[in-house]
Amino acid sequence: MINILSRPDLTPDAVLASLQEHYGIDGTLTSLPGDRDLNFLVTGTDGLKRVAKISSPDETDEILEIEADLIRHMARATDGFVADVIPSLGGAWIVKHIAEDGKIHRIRVVEYLEGRLFAEVQPRSPSLLYDLGRRMADLDSALGAYPDHPPARIDFEWALGRSGLVMERCLSLFQGEQLELIQSVHDGWLKREPDFLGLGSQVIHGDVNDYNVLVSLPGDGPRRITGIIDLGDAHSAPRVFDLGIAIAYAILDTDDPLMSISEIVRGFHDRTPLSEEEADVVFALARARLGASVSISAWRRHQLGEVDDYALISERPAWDMLRKLHEIPVRLAEGVVREAAGLSASPNTPALTGWLEKQTFAPVINMPEEQDEVIVLDLSIASPLLNGRDTDFVEEFARRISRHMEDENARIGIGRYLEPRAFYLTELFKGRPGDPRERRTVHTGIDIFDQFGSGVHAPLTGHVLSVAHNGQNLDYGPTVILEHNSPVGPFWTLYGHLEAASVDQLEPGTKIQAGEVFARIGALEENGGWPPHLHFQILTDLMEFKGQFPGVALPREQPVWASFSPDPNLILHLPGDTTFTPLEGLSKRRAELFGANLGVAYDTPLHIARGVDTYLYDEMGRSYLDCVNNVAHVGHERRSVVEAGQLQMGVLNTNTRYLHERVLEYAERLTNWFPDPLSVCFFVNSGSEANELALRIARAHTASQGIVAIEGGYHGHSQTLIDVSHYKHAGEGGTGAPAWVRTVPIPDDYRGLYGRDVVDRGTRYAMHLGEAFGSLSSSGHKPAAFIAESILSCGGQIEPPAGYLEEAYRIARSRGALCIADEIQIGFGRTGSHMWGFGAANVVPDIVTLGKPIGNGHPIGAVVTTSEIADSFANGMEFFSTFGGNPVSSAIGLAVLDVVEHDRLQEHAAVIGGTLKANLASLAMRYESIGDVRGRGLFLGIEFVEDRIAKQPSARIARYVANRAAELGVLLSADGPHHNVIKIKPPMTFDQRDAERVVATIDQILSEDEAQPRE
Length: 1015
Ligand SMILES: Cc1ncc(COP(=O)(O)O)c(C=O)c1O
What we know:
By secondary structure, the protein is α+β, with helices and mostly antiparallel strands.
């Protein structure tokens, strides 16, 4: 049977009486979790916090004495990392309390360490897991220096060394899936048990579970481990047992245990190197701890009828984790540990590659005589050969590859080893959860593109291990694995995308001679749906795969899979650079080449290599849902827009001094979208240029200079526009507004001058224009223009209250000023209800400026005005913008208009934006950190506060949300005068699924520790 120590049953009053008598401590007790011990947090009347521990009455004096001594050693050896024991008034480390029933209880008091229990920390970031590993190494070094060994505790069920026995004795309690899981963990344990003998032993902590590890509080820099408590399970065992135990609990409830294991092991190994023997048992140990834990819980429940919350607390997550680990091939998990410990993930690989390097092989595919008939194809994320959705249209993909090879006079094309690729888009490549950005994108074989029907030769003698038809779309199709012998053991070569008929005769065991043609390259229709090619890969371990083996890996696991499948060119000997090498040092180059005030988004800069619709992809193929880029209005790299530009680029690109139909058609189509009398347009190349020109036109028309703008507004980067942009001239590095500019208060009814309780707040805000124009005039600057966005973007997604723009325009016009609507952020239907932001405000401006979305990323700017105003601008001085309105830009602009009309993007923005806003508003009911949700259509803002009542802005939370969302694969940006507003302004093709993902991601982040409001 299994031995479980009973728990003490002292009342808090009895404990307090003892504390008063023996320690002179008075205070209040709060229960703390504990397995065998009864633990209380003692908040003393002296203001100090301590912990009182009452041991199991079954525990021996000897063990408790040694434990107290060990704690004192550890408190010194770890510099306070382990809480010290506090002596009683009489100088004793342990005091006895005799209960009324005569039972003797032993009480100790230890220091209280500040921190959050590891079990309660959200999220368990990679850096925290790494720190846990480092701290485990420190802990075990300090424990290793303890001179006296406590007893081995062979009869103690929680000792990891007894896991095998515990699981075995409890097997009868399980059935079905649970039985299968425990049996498999038990088998894994038995396989590794003989290895423990060689590991040596020392004092170990014995129970580094997630309730015994303390973490620094949020807000104190990156989270780190600050303490380890409860040495009550210390005993003699190999030090790596502690690492196994720590891993078992630290991975509970994590999506990707392998990633977590890797970080912890890396942290440990970087501090004190793990031997190969130690590394190889870590995974079995971690699984065994979970297996023993659920076994003990089951035993307690069945044999003792006990339902103990503390013991059961990790039971559900432990089963979940056992289930998850069961899905992962053991050799892969062990490989992950080995890789983190600086070893080759696949133990055989170094010896095998050493041997392969010395061999000669028959060519797998007949190579042309001329080396230049063999080219390396760029199939990486940024490849111009590809369009990001290539595998949706495989025939076209195949045509493109073969056309490219023809253009290059190539007979053979090579697809590189370790190349990240964007086209593995089906479910097959989803990989495991854990990092929502990642799919399996990194190629672990080499592709040889050749005619279908070309013979595939065995590079060396072997026999057929398997012939399989992996029939799913984009799978390997017909696949052969050959087994070969080498002096360092067997290894395998895999051949994918074959012709079915060519492998019909092959059977497992069929001998194949070096150089023999044993298969042929298959056609697209039967090879899994690919351009004809051979996928060739070396396997040093089959793991548990049959008939196939992964040919693409998750970016985070690349080094592990690259070890299991070393460079195929060891055998193929193909010419050229057949291994992909990622670019490095971009941040450094950028810092050297550009001014330091050219900012880069996010704490960890992204290297974005491709855009497809609402997604951006980095150089490893990680995907990011783009909620920032309102420039890619009709979707990133929208085909029709790209092609329109490409086609016109090949015909003519010149300036507007010639007659050209396209620019006229574009001007007609664009101005048709505006209400009368806005009918004349000017083309330029950016939003800044459009605003700069708008101011020139207004000044020409009014023969005046004075400009009124809104606080928090941004209108462009030229000197004049910085002068009118309060966001810049009143911000960091700004030198204030010049004499010809006045700014009026931001019409923010959440935190501005007039709140939502002020009924006529719109007109009240507008009245400030009167003062501003008055002040301008009295300083000698006659009014020329009032410039405003209809919804302020940099100002924090502020939609002015009803009536504001109407009244503001009335006042401006009454002072002789023109009204300029800056629609650069919000135009082209983004607000959902109207094509232009000013539409919702029921006004018609005198001049409208356009930019950003107008060219879907191609630099176009435009100014639209009335013929009367345009006439007064035509005062004799020529207007000329070299690139403005060129035929290429016009073709692109027209293609954008086509999509906006055809896809009814304005209505789409209203529908998707409407539900998105409602769902964000419902998050606000659950998270105090959300002060306000506002905006229109697909132009929304979430304002974060530390305190809802005081509305104290929280740039901290907004920044955390933006950075964390990027880690979770959603791009958001923070802005506003207090930098506390998250802006959501995605490409307009953003759909319901995208919107749901944004809400779920923000929901997850707002539940995390760093996103909680602070005093
Ligand atoms: C409202 C507004 N106006 C004008 C501009 C300037 O446009 P560009 O950067 O294309 O010169 C911007 C750019 O962010 C903007 O947001």
